[in-house]
Every structure is written in C-alpha cells, then in structure tokens.
Specification:
- The complex is a heterodimer of chains A (270) and B (311).
- With 270 residues, chain A is an alpha/beta fold.
- Chain A is 39% helix and 23% strand.
- In chain A, helix 3 runs parallel beside helix 5 and helix 5 runs parallel beside helix 6.
- The longest helix of chain A is centred in the last third of the chain and has 29 residues.
- The N and C termini of chain A lie far apart (51 Å).
- In chain B, the strands form two sheets. In chain B, strands 1-4 form a two-stranded antiparallel sheet. A two-stranded antiparallel sheet of chain B has the order 2-3.
- Chain B is built from twelve helices and four strands, in the order ααααβαββααααβααα.
- Chain B has 311 residues and is mainly α.
- In chain B, helix 1 crosses helix 10, helix 3 runs antiparallel to helix 4 and helix 7 packs across helix 9.
- Chain B starts with a helix and ends with a helix.
- Classes of the chains: A alpha/beta (270), B mainly alpha (311).
- At the A-B interface, helix 2 and helix 3 of A face helix 7 and helix 8 of B.
C-alpha cells in the first residue's frame, strides 16, 4: 500500500522562478490498486512520480510504502520496493550491455551486489523464459546489445525488468509517450497483462485519454499541483474519452477565466 | 632488438595505466587527471618502501593501494562535495605533487642499487633456465635479464587484464559498467551510483599507481615528474586499442587497451629513433589524441555535407 500524506514541493523557493509543483497532496493507493494519473502540462503529475520514486524530496509531508516511511530514503534505496518505467525508452536500459545482462541486473533490484557471477546457467534459463513470455522473439537475441533494439522493444524489456522482482509499487511515467502507435499498443497490452497477473499496485501517469479511460480501476486528474478529480470503481468504469476531454476543456476555461479576470482587474485598478 | 624488448616491456607495464584510463574514461566518461598524480604516487610509495628494505612485491602492491586511496578521494570530492568532475581530479593531482615530494623526501629516488621486482624476475629466470650470457633469439642476441623482465611484464599485464575481465562479469562489475552506461537506470535498480563511481575511480587509480610502481622499478628510479602527461598517454593507448578491436564489448576492449598501450609505446620508440625531439613528445601525444577525438566527427560532418550536396 502506498500512503502519501499532505506532501508539498516548491521548486526554486524565494526566487522569481518559484513554482509550487505539489500543494498538500494526500493519496492512498491500496494493495493491488491500479491508479491512472492524468493532468495538463505543469499540473504536477510528473513531480508526484518523482517524489514517490525519490528523485526529489518533499518540503513537507510523508510517504509510506509497504508499511515503511520512505520519505527520507534515497532513490536507490527505494528501488528495493519500486519498479519503474520511464518515458524515454533509452532511460530504462544500459545500451552497451546485452539484453540478458540488463535482465540479470534488474533481477537483483535493490539487493547487494557482490563478486558472484552475474550470469549463471540457472539465471540464464530463467530469464530466457521470462523474455520469451513477451512474445517478441527476443529470447533468441539475448546476447545482443540492448541499444540495438527499437524503442518499443526496449520499453517492453524495461517493463519486464521492473517486475522481474515483484515490486511493492510499479511506477509508469508516460511510458508509451515516445513510442509509435503500434509499439504503444503492444506495451500497454503487456502492462495490463502483467499488472493483472501479478496483482501489482500500480501508479501510471499518461498523456493518452484513451489509456486513461480504458486502463486501471481508479483515475486521478491533477491540476495546478492538486488532485482535482478522483474517480474510483464504478465511476471510473463509466468514464469515456469524451468525458475526460470535457474535463480538460473545463480546466482550460477556468484557467482562461482566471487570466482574463486578472486582466480585467488590472485594466480597472492599475 | 634490445630497444624493441625494452619498449615492449614498458608498453606492457603501461598497459595497466591504459586499463585504469579505460575504466575512468571509457566506462565512466570521467576524464580523471588524478591519473598523473597517482602514477607518481605509486612509484613514490614503492620506491621508498623498497629502499627501506621492504619486499618489492609488497612495496608494489602498497603503491597500488595508495593509488586507490587517491582515486577514492577524487570520487568523493565529486560525488559527496559536489566538486566539478574535472576540478576534483585537478585538486587531488595538485595536492599529490606535494604528497609525493613528502613521501620521497626529495624529487628523485634511484633504485639501481637495491633489489627490485625486475631483478627478482631476472634471478627467477636464471634459476629456472640456468644463468649464462646473452641468448640467441631468432638470430638476435638478447640479454637474459631483459627477456625475464619482458616475460614478467607480460604475465602481470595478462593477469591484471584477466582479473579485470572477470570482475566486469560479476554482479558488482556489471553494475559498474551499467552505471557508466546509464546512471538513471541503475539508481532505479537500487545502485548508489555515486559510490559506484568512487569504487571505479579507486580501481582505476590503483591500476595506474601499480603501473607507476612497476615503471619506477624497471627504469631504476622514481621521479616526482614522471606522471606528467600520463593521462593523455593512457588516452592515446585506449584510443589506439579501440581502433584495433573496433567499438566492441568490454572483453575485447580490455585486450585492445593492452595492445594499444604496447603499440603506442612502440610507435613512440620508433619516432624517437627516427629523430623526434623528446621534448616534442608530449605535444605529439596531445595532437594525436586530439586528432583521434575530433577526426571521427569531422569526417562524419564532411560525409553528411557531401550527402546533402548529392541529394
């Protein structure tokens, strides 16, 4: 279970570039829940992910995962609990290492690394089976450098790497945004299968309204560093792409209203 | 022939330098100028200990250990104190100049009259194959001692290269390679990437210091100036090695670095033989590395411009 209590994050505090990226956000994600997060650019959805992953530290509030307070844990320490897939397909894998080496490194996520061999016969066989499950034919190219693969293939492997060792939380950061539609569909299908089969607690940020409407059992919409909508269960199931577009339109109008109201006041009083 | 054997021996000794530079520069893309200080540091520590009567092998290893400490300091300055990568190396290198003088007590320690590893190698050779005068090798007369030193240097280079290769196949070593490749990924896999860099620089400078300790014993003295220009020397070796084996995985790259170090030393020996002024040597080395770094980009852009014109 992920339990976020009243966290805030301000970038560049006290300077003209000050940005309140996250404002007093609380969020509880029960075990096995699949949360999809949407939001406009600058809504704070990426910052929320970074705070959970430990890439940045909140100014206030706390984050608990799997019964432990991880608020002050470094990124590498949280990796023992969190599997991640990044937006950029190049971010999740080491390009000059082979497919099997990348897999084997991920199979020991969060563990101590000593002077034992990375690849033993048993590890090789096990990982080969797991790669074969992707159904992409990559199990016959295990010794190729992973940098020689396409973005879609790399992202599928990164996803597999994130779940090789069952994570307490799977974090997906717009992990199909940089892929072509076909590869994107494939990765989404894999995501859905893996999350369902292993009953993974998942937080997925996406730009795609289609994915937001069809994936997960809960939908969160962020606006200006706050959670604006939180639709679960039955309400989430009824959501259509059109509803989401309407929500975004509403937000856009409200923003414009704010801006034009400010303009109006300024012309009156300044 | 003696010149050839001497060059080969120095080349093999300096292959440890090349392997160190391979780790810092190729694995971590960290231009680590500490190299110049740690080479001298290894030589200084080994020389002082040997003069004091310590077993040469133990003294050499102590030199390597001192280099590891120097490398860790550079790494810690960068990862813990946030000092710019290049600057942290410069700071440690500069500090090491004084440290090396302190260790040696003067700027030069001769090792001619004491027993060193090369002499032990010579004695071992005598014991194994019987003492005697120069031997005939493919029609050339060769000093036995030189031959023994060459064999010793070859064994050391092969042993270190093999150990490094095996290390890179372990969990820890693979994590190190992957960290140099993609630090963000390895943080997500639970690696403290800063500590990994510190360990990498420690190993790199340990190898460099080992090269320094062996070089001092081979040439018969440790000198406080002997590290100058050695980073570029190591870079040249690594680059030649890469040209020899191509852009390949780490196994061949390690072999390439050793071959590159030997070949570069031979090229230098030939150039000096043909009348290159030794004072110009470092200029030539620097120009060589510059050309090797810049030429591929220049060639690529030329090719592209050509392609555009044809299009």
């Amino acid at each position: 279970m992920l339990n976020i209590k009243d966290i805030s994050k301000t970038f560049n505090p006290g300077t003209p570039d000050e940005v309140q990226a996250i404002k007093h956000v609380s969020l509880t994600v029960p075990e096995g829940s699949f949360v999809v997060v949407i939001g406009t650019n600058g809504s704070g959805k990426s910052t929320l992910q970074q705070l959970i992953a430990g890439a940045c530290v909140p100014d206030s509030g706390s984050i608990e995962l799997a019964g432990q307070d991880i608020t002050r844990w470094g990124e590498h320490r949280r990796a023992a609990l969190i599997g991640r897939v990044f937006q950029n397909p190049f971010s999740g894998t080491a390009p000059t290492l082979s497919i099997i080496e990348n897999m084997a490194l991920a199979a020991r996520r969060g563990q101590r690394r000593g002077l034992g061999w990375l690849l033993s016969g048993a590890v090789r066989r096990h990982l080969r089976e797991r790669v074969a499950e992707l159904g992409m034919g990559l199990e016959d190219r295990l010794d190729n450098a992973i940098g020689s693969l396409s973005g879609g293939q790399r992202q599928a492997l990164t996803l597999l790497m994130a779940v090789l060792q069952r994570p307490s939380l799977l974090l997906l950061d717009e992990h199909t945004a940089a892929l072509d539609p076909k590869a994107s569909d494939q990765v989404i299908r894999l995501t859905r299968d893996m999350v369902a089969r292993e009953k993974l607690t998942t937080v997925m940020v996406t730009h795609s309204m289609h994915q937001a409407a069809h994936l997960g059992d809960r939908l969160i919409m962020m606006v200006n560093g706050e959670i604006r909508q939180d639709l679960a269960d039955e309400r989430k199931r009824r959501v259509h792409v059109e509803d989401l577009l309407a929500l975004f339109e509403q937000v856009r109008r409200a923003d414009r209203l704010d801006a034009s109201a400010a303009e109006l006041l300024r012309s009156r009083y300044v | 022939m003696m010149l050839l054997i001497g060059s080969l021996t120095i080349g093999l000794i300096l292959s440890l330098l090349a392997l160190g530079v391979y780790i810092s520069f190729r694995v971590f893309s960290f231009a680590d100028i500490t190299t110049e200080g740690s080479l001298t540091l290894g030589a200084a520590v080994a020389a002082v200990l040997i003069v004091r009567g310590v077993n040469p092998l133990a003294a050499t290893l102590a030199g390597g250990l001192a280099g590891m400490v120097a490398g860790s300091i550079t790494g810690l300055l960068h990862t813990r104190c946030g000092v710019h990568a290049l600057l942290s190396g410069i700071l440690v290198m500069t500090a090491l100049y004084s440290v090396n003088l302190r260790i040696m007590g003067r700027s030069n320690i001769p090792l001619m009259s004491v027993k060193t590893l090369p002499q032990q190698a010579g004695e071992l050779g005598d014991a194994l194959f019987g003492a005697g005068g120069p031997v005939l090798l493919w029609g050339w007369t060769v000093e036995r001692e030189a031959l023994a030193m060459l064999t010793g240097a070859l064994l050391v280079a092969v042993l270190v290269a093999l150990l490094l290769y095996l290390f890179f196949k372990t969990n820890l070593g693979s994590a190190m390679r992957a960290t140099g490749d993609n630090a963000q990924m390895m943080r997500a896999q639970g690696i403290h990437t800063g500590n990994m860099l510190v360990l990498g620089l420690a190993i790199a400078n340990g190898l460099v210091a080992l090269a320094g300790a062996l070089l001092a014993q081979f040439q018969g003295f440790a000198d406080v100036q002997m590290g100058i220009g050695m980073l570029v020397w190591g870079l040249a070796s690594v680059i030649i090695g890469q040209a020899l084996v191509g852009p390949s995985r780490f196994g061949l790259a390690i072999i390439g670095a050793v071959m590159g170090a030997v070949l570069f030393r031979l090229l230098v020996a030939i150039a000096l033989r043909w009348g290159l002024n030794p004072n110009d040597l470092k200029l030539m080395t620097a120009l060589f590395v510059l050309a090797a770094l810049v030429l591929p980009t220049v060639l690529r852009s030329l090719r592209q411009r050509k392609a555009v014109r044809h299009a």
